Amino acid sequence: MSVPDDAPRLDRAEKHAETVHRIYRDRRAAPPARELLLAVAYALSIAPGDPGRVLTTAARALGREGGRPRFNALVADDAPRYEPPRAAADWGPGGAPGCEAPRLRPYVYRPRITVTGPEESAVPLRPWDSPSPVLHAAPGFSPPPVDYRNAQGVCGANSHHKVLELDPRTGWTIARWFCKRHVDHAERVSEQVREQNASAPEPIPNRGGLLPAYFKAPWEKVYRHYAPARWEPPSYGLSADDWPDPGNPPPARSPRRLRAV
User: Fold this and answer.
1) What angle do helix axes 31-45 and 9-25 make, rounded to 10 degrees?
2) Using an 8 Å Cβ cutoff, are 178 and 165 in contact?
3) Which of 9, 164, 222, 240 is the most buried (most CB within 10 A)?
4) pTM here?
5) Pairing relation of β-strands 68-69 and 64-65?
6) What phi, psi does 161 have (nearest 5°)?
7) What is the chain's alpha carbon radius of gyration, rounded to the nearest angstrom?
8) CA gap 75, 82 in Å, rounded
9) Separation between Cα atoms, residue 67 and residue 56, nearest integer Å
10) pLDDT (tens digit, 0 to 9) for every residue of the chain, 261 residues total?
11) DSSP string computed for the chain
12) 187 and 181 in contact (C-beta within 8 Å)?
C-alpha cells in the first residue's frame, strides 16, 4: 500500500478501508500480525503526523508492554524465516513423539498389577474409607476399538533417538523418532537421508513476511534493526506473496551425476 502525501482525504480513507478489508481476510495474519498491519495502515492513511515517520506513529499507536514498545517485538516476529516443527526440537524421552519404527506384534494393553504383602498383613479398607472413583472422561466416552499403535503399525514407545529429514522440494524439516530398541532403524534412516539432506534447497519461509506484502518500505533494513542478530533475509524474498506455495513447490533438484564418455 502506498498513498501519496497530497492525495485527497477521501481517497486515502477509501484506500485505508480496502487495505483493512484485505488484512482481515488474510488467513496468514495471526492476531498479533494483524494488529501490526492495522497499526501501520492507520499511521499511513488516517493518523495525523509527519508522513515520513509512519513507523513511529504506528509504534505509538500500539503502545507499550512491560516497559518496552510492542512494535519492536511485533516487527521482529514478522521477519521472514523458516521455523521447524515442534517435533524437531530436542525433546526428552517423555516429551518426544513416540517411536515410529514398524510394530511386529499387536499391542495388547496389560493393566498394572498391585503388589501387596501377605494376605494377613493387608489391612482391608472400611466401606466408608474407600475412595470414590474418579472419572477422567466425558460421559458416554468409550476408548477406540483399535489402539493407534496397531492402527498405524508403529512401535509408539518413548523415543530417545532423533533423525532429521529435509524435504527435497521445500527444504522443510521432518523429524523421525526412535526408541532404544530400534537404534538400528534410526541408523538406517539416517544413512538413507544423508544424500537427500545434503542436496536439499533452502527451506521456504513459513513465518513473517506480511509487512512487505502490504506496504512499500526498506524492510530489510527495518528487520535487521529489530530481528535477532543471526537473522538473514531468505533468498525467496521478503514478501510472503513471493514465496513458493508449499503445497505446490518447485521440482526437486537432482544431484549432479558424472556421465561416462
Assistant:
1) 170
2) no
3) 240
4) 0.75
5) antiparallel
6) -125, 130
7) 28
8) 16
9) 17
10) 545 555 566 677 888 899 999 999 999 999 999 999 999 999 988 877 666 788 999 999 999 999 999 999 999 999 999 999 999 999 988 889 999 999 988 887 765 555 555 555 555 555 555 566 555 666 776 767 788 888 888 999 999 999 999 999 999 999 999 999 999 999 999 999 999 999 999 999 999 999 999 999 999 999 999 999 999 999 999 999 999 988 776 665 544 433 433
11) ----TTS-HHHHHHHHHHHHHHHHH-TT--HHHHHHHHHHHHHHHTS-S-GGGHHHHHHHHH-EETTEEHHHHHHHHTS-B----GGGS---TTTSPPP-SBPSS-----PPPPP---GGG--PPPGGGSPPP---S-TT----SS-HHHHHTB--PPP-EEEEEE-TTT--EEEEEE-GGGHHHHHHHHHHTHHHHHTPPPPPP-B---HHHH--S-HHHHHHHHS-TT----TT-SSGGGSPPTTSPPPPPPPP-----
12) no
Q: Which three cell numbers stand for residue 141?
A: 466416552
Amino acid at 248: N
Neighbours of 233 (CB within 10 A): 16
Amino acid identity, residue 79? A
What are the cell numbers at 192?
A: 538413507
**Which amino acid, residue 216?**
K
Count of positions (residues) in the chain? 261
Residue with cell 525467496: 236
Q: Which three cell numbers stand for residue 113?
A: 498389577
